[in-house]
Amino acid sequence: MTRLSGITPSGEAHLGNYLGAVSRWAAHSRPDDLYFVSNMHAMTIDHDPERLRDLTDHQLAVLVAAGVPGDRLFVQSDLIREHMALAWLLECTCTFGEASRMIQFKEKSRGSASVRLGLLTYPVLMAADILLHGTAQVPVGEDQSQHVELARTLARRFNTDYGEVFVVPEAVLPEAGARVRDLSDPSRKMSKSSSEAHGIVFVLDEPEVIRRKFARAVTDGRDEVRYDAVEQPGVANLLDILAVCRGTTAEEAARGIGGYRDLKEAVGTAVIDTLGPVRERALALLEDRFELTRIRQEGAERARERSERRLTEAIALAGLA
Ligand code: AMP
Ligand code: TRP
Questions:
Q1: Which residue, 77, 121, 193, 212, has fewest beta-carbon neighbours within 10 Å?
Q2: Residue 102 CB-density burial (10 A; 0-12 exposed, 13-18 middle, 19+ buried)
Q3: Pocket test residue of 8, 10, 38, 131 for ligand 2, highest count of atoms within 8 A of CB
Q4: Hey, what domains does the chain have and what are their CATH numbers?
Q5: Ligand 1: does its nearest atom lie under 6 Å from the Cβ of 180?
């Protein structure tokens, strides 16, 4: 029962990525699971090659530092031939209507004079990522569930039209409360694409920077520490973060905290304690090119071995061999 998920290096890893995805992958991964840096997905919109290269290393280092076992990790472009070969088979299985109905495509292409074809076909590449590795479960955020649904459709269609080769995957959505919100605007989720840098806590932020960002976090005028996500979304977000870091419920986390100043202090400290060791290990790895390259090579080799048979069979079933 393989579980697979990817993280796109379109920016530096932040607290939402860490608490909502990466730390869970580290805590709950099983020997068959695969996690990868989906760097081929980071070029559907304008990108700088040098920065993409750096961010790919950065993401890989954060994953390793967070405790995702190295033997369950790989970088997508290290298997670019495999992923692209299957993406083509699936592009020829997918209709234009299906691809253009994807909500993310509609949102990201809206109002743009020049839309890259990759933005339209990216969910098909994502389906290839999933199906290539025999994935049964895909842990993703809500915004990706339509893409996993497309992967299911394409797997079934290919299996029916040409022969059984793909596992039909299903999305595994995070439990409620797993969303980290932007510290400067709690109505939005913390995201790599936020414009306000002080609303985002990055995994590699220095402790003092983290403390400052929490000190500036938007709350409300009540100075009443209680959990009410509707009336007090900023405070609820801080309590959610504190709770996840401490492994308690948000209500428990609120206990004994007098005012917003204390709350911000407490959550800042909890996040610094949580991210500190990850930051140190990641920075050490980024200094150690040799080790990072070794992890990449071994990960790629294993992922390739595991996917080889399935890809060969799909190519043959489609009549290409
Ligand atoms: P992204 O940064 O959108 O590429 O997402 C990478 C992974 O991190 C996905 O599994 C997301 O569900 C998760 N993630 C991203 N932002 C947040 C957030 N603010 N809170 C919780 N999880 C998040
Ligand atoms: N598209 C996903 C995101 O933006 C990342 C991703 C790429 C992915 N390929 C995947 C996630 C395959 C799960 C499975 O978050």
A1: 193
A2: buried
A3: 38
A4: 3-178+289-317 (3.40.50.620), 197-283 (1.10.240.10)
A5: yes
Mutating to test ligand 1, I would choose from 5, 7, 17, 126 the residue with most ligand atoms within 8 A of its C-beta, which is: 17
Stated length of the chain: 321
Residue 232 identity (one-letter amino acid): Q
Q: How many Å apart are CA 265 and CA 258, to the nearest integer?
A: 11
pLDDT in tens, 99-137: 999 999 999 999 888 999 999 999 999 999 999 999 999
CA distance 182 to 233: 10
What's the pTM? 0.95
Atom of ligand 1 nearest to the CA of 190: 19
CA of 98 to the centre of ligand 1 (A): 24
Closest CA to 109 of 161, 45, 156, 159: 45
Q: Tell me the two tokens of residue 28.
A: 């709950």
Q: What radius of gyration do the chain's Cα atoms show?
A: 21
Report CA(174)–ligand 2 centroid distance (Å). Answer: 14
Which residues are the active-site residues?
108, 189, 192
For residue 311, the CA-to-ligand 2 centroid distance in Å is 20
Distance 231 CA to ligand 2 centre (A): 33
Atom of ligand 2 nearest to the CA of 122: 1
C-alpha span between 73 and 91 (Å, rounded): 26
pLDDT of residue 193: 77
Which ligand is in closest contact with the Cα of 15?
A: 1
Ligand located closest to 147 CA: 2
Q: Which of 118, 97, 119, 96 is nearest to 107 (CA)?
A: 119
Q: What is the largest CA-CA distance in the chain?
A: 70
Residue 177, pLDDT > 60, answer no
